[in-house]
Design brief:
about 190 residues, Cytochrome Bc1 Complex, Chain D, domain 2, signal, Cyt_c-like_dom_sf, metal-binding
Length: about 190
């Protein structure tokens, strides 16, 4: 093997090693870092307050994206932005791995409204998963509090929360649709 071939091989391995993440997400480290999150999002990511979303079983990709959006200011929230501003990429990955590994709970939804929401839910399931369990960059809707889901749909409709596809979908829904869909997803 000549020196050019050796140099190319060495360059390949150096480049490949630089492309690898420095450390994989650590669920145990995420558990230790999650203490600050528990006051709003509950132990193990299961909130006891309808104001705050459940994080348990949420897609890790979605959680990473949202924490980075809070940190950069692309997603506006007066509580989450300061919390996320101090997180390193490693912290974000560890927290996301921890919360995504937790067992979810059902928030529950009013049965009559949930039945009405079930008939409207098909438009949501293509992105959010067949059982609204989340799908990579799309969040888990199953088990979220109805009030939280209604607020998010309203935020998309008014444009205070940005996401082109969700803004377009929410623009075509009524308040009654918000309530029905939220009750259905909360019941899953």
């Amino acid at each position: 093997m000549n020196s050019l071939q050796q140099s190319l091989i060495l360059s390949f391995f150096v480049s490949a090693s630089l492309a690898l993440p420095v450390s994989a997400a650590d669920v145990k480290a995420g558990e230790q870092k999650a203490d600050h999150c528990a006051s709003c999002h509950g132990q193990k990511g299961n909130s006891s307050n309808a104001q705050w979303p459940n994080l348990a079983a949420q897609s890790s990709i979605y959680l990473v994206n949202q924490l980075k959006a809070f940190k950069s200011g692309d997603r506006v929230n007066p509580i989450m932005q300061p919390m996320a501003s101090h997180l390193s990429d490693e912290d974000i990955n560890d927290l996301s791995a921890y919360f995504s590994s937790q067992q979810p709970v059902k928030a529950g939804g009013e049965p009559t409204l949930a039945k009405a929401g079930e008939t409207k839910a098909a438009m949501c399931l293509g992105c959010h998963g067949a059982k609204a369990q989340g799908n990579g960059q799309f969040p888990r809707l199953a088990g979220q509090y109805p009030e939280y889901l209604e607020r998010q749909l309203n935020a998309f409709k008014t444009g205070t929360r940005k996401n082109g596809p969700m803004q377009a979908i929410a623009a075509n829904l009524s308040e009654a649709d918000f309530k029905a869909l939220a009750a259905y997803f909360a019941s899953l």
